[in-house]
Amino acid sequence: MSGEGVAEETADFDGAQGAADADFDGEVTDEERLRSMRSTLDAFELEDDDRDILTADGEFIGFAEPSLEAFPVVAIVGRPNVGKSALVNRILGRREAVVEDIPGVTRDRVTYPALWNDRRFSLVDTGGWEPDARGIDASVALQAEVAIELCDVVLFVVDSRVGATATDERVVQMLRRSNKPVFLVANKVDDSVLDPEVAALWSLGLGEPRAVSALHGRGVADLLDDVMKTLPEVSAVAQPKLAGPRRVALLGRPNVGKSSLLNKAAGEERVVVNEIAGTTRDPVDEQVEIAGRVWTFVDTAGIRRRVHLQKGADFYATLRTSAALEKAEVAVVLIDVTQEISDQDLRIIDLVLESGRALVLAFNKWDMLDDERRRYLEREIEQDLAHVDWAPRVNISARTGRHLEKLVPALDAALESWDTRVPTAKFNAFLAELVQEHPHPLRGGKQPRVLFGTQVQNRPPTFVLFTSGFLDPGYRRFIQRRLRETYGFEGTPIQINVRVREKRERR
């Protein structure tokens, strides 16, 4: 930002009276100024947590070391609405997979880390498999077939109340061709009275049916004990995955191109893509390589306009999208350039800001942009996205992969800023010069003073200011702007917390 821009933004502060504790002296070292500003706090009432902040170096989170372990894989398959996702949740011991009493809720191939009797394995939930499927159902069925190929053990789930159907028999044929160990799971056996109905499933030719109730947990423990005996110690199919790659959440409105971007980056049809809005419902993790760098991309469900008005699968999908954002380090918010920037886009960006994650804006479908729409888009960006003008912007086409490699420098810049730590001495030198040039305006005949500051955390950069009075929101924003000018902080939100402390009474 230019000097003229700063002068305009801080016009309210220029006429203020008062000065900082001491005149800014270019000959004073940062360490000397730090000691001087720190000593001024001795005259103010401090609380115990204030002293903890002043004596600590900050809570800076480190990265986990990469892990090359590949856990064995258990895939759960079956026709729609037999309770596959309910069984996933029962095995995991928590509600991870979206469950609703209608067929076709799960669409993608979703992998969850699981643990049973101190053995770790990967549990894969799939969409319902149907023969001769068309459209989106064909894509869902394909993902289920891929899951069978890429697993060590298959749990074939059937509805014990319905019995063996023609679709179940077609699934059996596919399973036999795979030559994978298969456990026939007869679900919805909620009571021992229903046990005799399970015997009819012997006709499928897969051996003894295992009677379970995913809803109540009946028989699931015995099933898992037998699965662990069959599951190999080392997976024959799973590829070693590094735990180190940075986690990137793909966010945006429904049908904005998140799944297309993940598929293009992965180089395969990793998730189902369809013109139907809301195709993705469960967050899908995938390690991808872009421009020689490995990343963990998390495809998420599109966030709709009003979460509180959503029902069923869409409501829980939105909640899981928020949870996926919390586990990510940087969010790529996709914006459809062929449509007007909407309140929905802005709400998704605000969600990222509230979560404190780094932010990159990806303007998708750039190859479909004409000159007239481009002019309107530039005006919309200037007006609607001014509050995130610090976020890197990338123009891409998820469908064709155009300019996908430009995501890498944008992600690097955002994550580097998100990790940044400003030394306390440097930060207080910055504050001393700032308040000397632009002191806080008088309010009620008094002038709040910034006594001392420190960065207490990164990811995102979080600063605490000790002051003698309340700082106007405009002055806080001014400090944020000057921080960005001085230290960059491209692609990361900055949080500034103010602690007002009163002077001790003289005795």
From TrEMBL:
Residues 72-235, 246-419 form the EngA-type G domain. Keywords: GTP-binding, Nucleotide-binding, Repeat, Ribosome biogenesis. Belongs to the TRAFAC class TrmE-Era-EngA-EngB-Septin-like GTPase superfamily. EngA (Der) GTPase family. GTP 2 binds at residues 252-259, 299-303, 364-367. This is GTPase Der. GTPase that plays an essential role in the late steps of ribosome biogenesis. The keyword Nucleotide-binding applies. Residues 1-12 have a biased composition (Acidic residues). Associates with the 50S ribosomal subunit. GO terms for molecular function: GTP binding; ribosome binding. GTP 1 binds at residues 78-85, 125-129, 187-190. Residues 1-29 are annotated as: Disordered. InterPro entries: AAA+_ATPase (IPR003593), G_ENGA (IPR031166), GTP-bd (IPR006073), GTPase_Der (IPR016484), KH_dom-like (IPR032859), KH_dom-like_a/b (IPR015946), P-loop_NTPase (IPR027417), Small_GTP-bd (IPR005225). It comes from Leucobacter komagatae. NCBIfam families: GTPase_EngA, PRK03003.1, small_GTP. GO terms for biological process: ribosome biogenesis. CDD domains: EngA1, EngA2. It comes from the Bacteria.
